[in-house]
Design brief:
Layout: E1 9-14, E2 21-25, E3 29-33, E4 39-44, E5 50-55, E6 61-66, E7 70-75, E8 81-86, E9 92-97, E10 104-108, E11 113-117, E12 122-127, E13 134-139, E14 146-151, E15 156-160, E16 165-170, E17 177-182, E18 189-194, E19 199-203, E20 232-234, E21 238-240, E22 248-253, E23 259-264, E24 269-273, H1 286-297, H2 302-327, H3 381-390, E25 471-472, E26 478-479, H4 486-495
Parallel strand pairs: 16-20
Antiparallel strand pairs: 1-2, 2-3, 3-4, 5-6, 6-7, 7-8, 9-10, 10-11, 11-12, 13-14, 14-15, 15-16, 17-18, 18-19, 19-21, 22-23, 23-24, 25-26
Subcellular location: Nucleus
Protein name: Polyadenylation factor subunit 2
Function: Required for 3'-end cleavage and polyadenylation of pre-mRNAs. Also involved in chromosome segregation where it has a role in chromosome attachment to the mitotic spindle.
C-alpha cells in the first residue's frame, strides 16, 4: 500500500462482503481500496489521526474514532458524514459496530467505554472499570451479548450487555494490553497481545489460576444476584511470553480458526498454530522460554539464530539494492544480437555487428534536380527576363524548371549499418559510373579462412570470434575456447557485494 502516502496507517478494516478495504492514517485521511489494492477514493475524515474504524453489518456505513475525541459515521457510497458522536473527554482510541444490533462501542483515553445509538448518535450508557487508556473494544461475533475491552492497566475485561457490567477480568500481562481478538469458532477462546510482546490465550469457562492459588471467586452467572459479586478472574490457558520483541499492535484469526496472525512494532508479522499431537519441543523454543532458556534446553542455538538474522539482513539489503537499481534504470535496451555489445551502451561500437563500420545514409536530393546537396537550384536571371518580355500571359511553373541534360540515377537507400548483396550489373549503368558517397561497396568475395567473418562463422569479413565462443578451424571441426577462470568469476561476484562473508 505504498500509494497511501507518507503518513503512518493506524487502522485497516475489511467490509463484511470482503470487497472493500478501508485504511486510516495519521493525517485523518480514510482511503478506499479494492482487493487488488487499487486506491479508488480518498476522504478527509478528521483533522487529527484516526485510530480505529469499523463497518456496519450492511456495509452501507462505517464509523471512525479519532484523536479529536469524536466518532463520525459516514455513508460509504457518498462519503458524506451523517453523524458526529461527541461525549469523550479525551482521544477516542477504539471503535466497533455490533455485528447484528444497532449498537456502536468506543473506548477512549479518558478510561471510559461508551455505547452509542448509530441512528441518532445518542450516548446510551458508559461502562467503567479500567484505570488507564483503552486500546481495544471488540464485540463477540458468536455470543453477541459479550463485549471485550483492553487497556493499558494490564487488564482485559469481558462485559455482558444484558447486565451492563463486567463478568470476567483477564489477568496475566505484565504491561498494558494493546490487542485483542475473539476466536471465530470457539466462543470462549480469546487472544490478547501486550506491550511486552507477550501473547496470551484465555478460556472464559476455565479460570486457570496459578499454581498454589485457590479459586475464591464465583462467576456472576452462578449467583442469584450478579450485582453482589465481583468479576471473575481468568488467567491464561497458554502463554507465549516472548512472541515479539516489542508491542503487539494487531491480532487476527484465520476464518477457520487454525492460525493466529500477530503484527508487532518489531517489524515482524508471525503466524501461530496449535502444536501437532505429541509435539512438546515447541513449548521449549525461544518464544516460550526466551533465547537463554531455549539455549539451556537445547532447543535453540544462539549462534545459529544470529546467523539466520545476519543472512536475512544481508538478503534484505541485496533485495533493496536490486530494487533501487531497477527503479533507476534508464530507457529500455534496444534489440541486439545476444552475446554482443548493445549499440546503446557507452563505449560500445555504434554498428550492430562488430567489425563492420557504420555506413552513413546517402544525402537526400530533390527529384528532377541535379544538385545533390538538397538546396534549391538557382534560376538564371537573364532567362527569367526573356520569358517575361516574350509573353503577356502569366508564366507557368514549368517554364522556371532548370534544364536537365540527363537525369542522374539515384540508387535506393539502404538501412544504416547493414550490408546488402546487390548485383549492380542488373542496373543499366553508364560506363564509368561512380557510386554516390555513402553507398556501400559491392560485397567482398567469400573467404575460407577463419580470420574474418562474423564471430564463430567464416565467409564474411569482420572480427575473429572472441575467446570462449565456439569457432571452427581449417578442418571445419568446431572447437570451444577455454572456460573463464573461477577466480576471476569469484572476484567479479565480490565486487558486486556477494560472497564477502563466510557462512
Amino acid at each position: 500500500m505504498a500509494a497511501s502516502g507518507y503518513s503512518s496507517i493506524r487502522a485497516a478494516e475489511w467490509s463484511y462482503s470482503k470487497e472493500w478495504l478501508l485504511s486510516a492514517d495519521d493525517e485523518g485521511v480514510v482511503k478506499y481500496w479494492q482487493p487488488n489494492l487499487n486506491n479508488v477514493q480518498t476522504l478527509q475524515a478528521h483533522s487529527m489521526p484516526v485510530r480505529d474504524l469499523a463497518f456496519a453489518p450492511s456495509d452501507r456505513k462505517f464509523v471512525t474514532a479519532s484523536d479529536d475525541a469524536t466518532l463520525k459515521i459516514f455513508d460509504f457510497t457518498t462519503t458524506n458524514c451523517d453523524l458526529t458522536l461527541s461525549g469523550h473527554n479525551w482521544d477516542a482510541k477504539s471503535v466497533d459496530w455490533h455485528p447484528s444490533k444497532g449498537l456502536i462501542v468506543s473506548g477512549s483515553k479518558d478510561h471510559s467505554v461508551k455505547l452509542w445509538d448509530p441512528r441518532v448518535g445518542r450516548n446510551l450508557t458508559t461502562l467503567h472499570g479500567h484505570k488507564n487508556a483503552l486500546t481495544a473494544t471488540v464485540f463477540s461475533r458468536l455470543r453477541d451479548q459479550l463485549l471485550a475491552t483492553a487497556a493499558r492497566d494490564n487488564l482485559a475485561r469481558i462485559f455482558d450487555l444484558r447486565m451492563m457490567r463486567d463478568v470476567c477480568v483477564l489477568r496475566g500481562h505484565e504491561k498494558g494490553i494493546t490487542a485483542i481478538a475473539w476466536h471465530p469458532i470457539h466462543s470462549s477462546l480469546i487472544a490478547t497481545g501486550g506491550d511486552d510482546g507477550a501473547l496470551h490465550s484465555y478460556l472464559l469457562d476455565e479460570p486457570n489460576p496459578p499454581v498454589g492459588v485457590a479459586v475464591s471467586e464465583l462467576s456472576p452467572y452462578n449467583v442469584s444476584d450478579p450485582s453482589t459479586v465481583p468479576a471473575q478472574s481468568i488467567h491464561p490457558a497458554h502463554r507465549i511470553t516472548y512472541a515479539h520483541e516489542s508491542s503487539i499492535w494487531s491480532l487476527d484469526w484465520h476464518p477457520l480458526g487454525h492460525i493466529l496472525a500477530s503484527g508487532s512494532n518489531d517489524h515482524f508479522t508471525r503466524f501461530w498454530s496449535r502444536a501437532r499431537p505429541g509435539e512438546i519441543n515447541c513449548f521449549k523454543d525461544q518464544f516460550h522460554l526466551g533465547e537463554e532458556g531455549a539455549e539451556a534446553q537445547g532447543t535453540w542455538d544462539r549462534k545459529f539464530g544470529r546467523k539466520q538474522m545476519r543472512e536475512q539482513e544481508e538478503q534484505e539489503e541485496q533485495d533493496e539494492a536490486e530494487d533501487l537499481g531497477d527503479q533507476n534504470a534508464g530507457a529500455k535496451l534496444l534489440a541486439s544480437i545476444p552475446g554482443l555489445p548493445n549499440p546503446s551502451a557507452s563505449g560500445a561500437p555504434t554498428s550492430l555487428i562488430p567489425g563492420m563500420g557504420t555506413i552513413a545514409p546517402p544525402p537526400l536530393s530533390m527529384p528532377n534536380f541535379g544538385a545533390s546537396s538538397g538546396d534549391a537550384p538557382a534560376i538564371d536571371p537573364g532567362r527569367l527576363a526573356s520569358i517575361i518580355a516574350s509573353t503577356t500571359q502569366a508564366p507557368s511553373l514549368q517554364q522556371f524548371q532548370p534544364q536537365q541534360t540527363q537525369q542522374s540515377f539515384v540508387p535506393p537507400l539502404l538501412p544504416t549499418g547493414l550490408l546488402s548483396n546487390i548485383d549492380l550489373s542488373q542496373f543499366n549503368l553508364p560506363s564509368g559510373f561512380q557510386l554516390p558517397a555513402g553507398f556501400p561497396p559491392p560485397p567482398l568475395p567469400i573467404q575460407n579462412d577463419t580470420q574474418g567473418g562474423l564471430p564463430g562463422l567464416s565467409g564474411l569479413n569482420g572480427t575473429p570470434p572472441p575467446s570462449g565462443m565456439v569457432g571452427t578451424d581449417a578442418s571445419g571441426i568446431r572447437k570451444r575456447g577455454p572456460l573463464p577462470s573461477q577466480q576471476e568469476s569469484l572476484a567479479a561476484e565480490q565486487r558486486r557485494g556477494n560472497y564477502r562473508h563466510a557462512k
